[in-house]
């Protein structure tokens, strides 16, 4: 018998991205900003959403994180191409748009996607302090199966409709921009701080 998995959806997690000093500085700056600036409304239900200009800010902490983001997205891209025996014949510039989200108790994000981006990124300088034993789904990043729902086989969940990732400080997640996702309500005292990025691969002009 031959079998093949088609229409796979890749999600990459990198646990080695942050460090305590960088995460502390990012979280501190963003929490202060969330208390001073009004923010904007996008997919967030409650919470504070910054303007999407983090990648343009000259501060060392933001520029350092953007470099780390590009490195991991490049790694994911190359891994995907290698897995499909696809030759990467062009050189690319990685264009990044980034913003922050500060969630407090009860805040969450609605189902949405970033279809205009080739890859999307979620990074967590501070995942908050929710009690996982009491609130096991608090602040989880949840992905929605992009395929049309089918009939469930009783007793066997062969094709789950959602996949969730539990945020933790220093974790960076890379996924296709078109993949729908949402954030479960956060249940904690300390703010949950995340940074999201949309990344587009733009071919560099031939020399």
Number of E-type strands: 11
- What is the CATH architecture annotation? Sandwich
**Beta-sheet strand percentage?**
25-35%
Could you say which structural class the secondary elements and strand pairing correspond to?
alpha+beta
List segments where confidence is low: pLDDT < 50 over at least 5 consecutive residues: none
Query: Helix and strand succession?
Result: EHEEHEEEEEEEE
Average per-residue pLDDT, rounded, comes to 95
For the record, give the distance between the C-alpha atoms at the N and C termini, rounded to a whole number: 49 Å
Largest sheet: 6 strands, antiparallel
Shape: globular
Strand order of the largest sheet: 1-9-6-11-4-3
Task: Look at the structure and name the CATH superfamily.
Answer: q2cbj1_9rhob like domain
CATH topology (level 3) name: Jelly Rolls
Estimated helix fraction = 10-25%
Radius of gyration: 18 Å
Just give the CATH class. Mainly Beta
Number of helices: 2
């Amino acid at each position: 018998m031959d079998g093949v998995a088609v229409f796979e959806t890749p999600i990459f997690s990198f646990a080695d991205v942050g460090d305590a000093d960088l995460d502390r500085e990012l979280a501190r700056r963003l929490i202060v900003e969330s208390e001073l600036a009004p923010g904007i409304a996008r997919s967030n239900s409650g919470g504070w959403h910054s303007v999407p200009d983090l990648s343009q800010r000259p501060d060392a902490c933001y520029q350092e994180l953007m470099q780390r983001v590009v490195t991991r997205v490049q790694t994911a891209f190359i891994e995907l191409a290698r897995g499909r025996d696809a030759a990467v014949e062009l050189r690319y510039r990685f264009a990044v748009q980034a913003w922050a989200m500060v969630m407090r108790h009860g805040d969450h994000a609605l189902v949405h996607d970033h279809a205009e981006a080739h890859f999307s990124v979620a990074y967590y300088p501070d995942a908050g302090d929710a009690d996982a034993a009491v609130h096991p789904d608090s602040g989880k990043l949840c992905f929605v199966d992009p395929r049309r729902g089918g009939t469930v086989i009783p007793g066997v969940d062969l094709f789950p409709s959602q996949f969730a990732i539990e945020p933790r400080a220093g974790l960076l997640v890379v996924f296709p921009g078109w993949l729908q996702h949402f954030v479960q309500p956060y249940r904690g005292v300390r703010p949950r701080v995340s940074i999201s990025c949309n990344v587009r691969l733009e071919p560099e002009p031939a020399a």
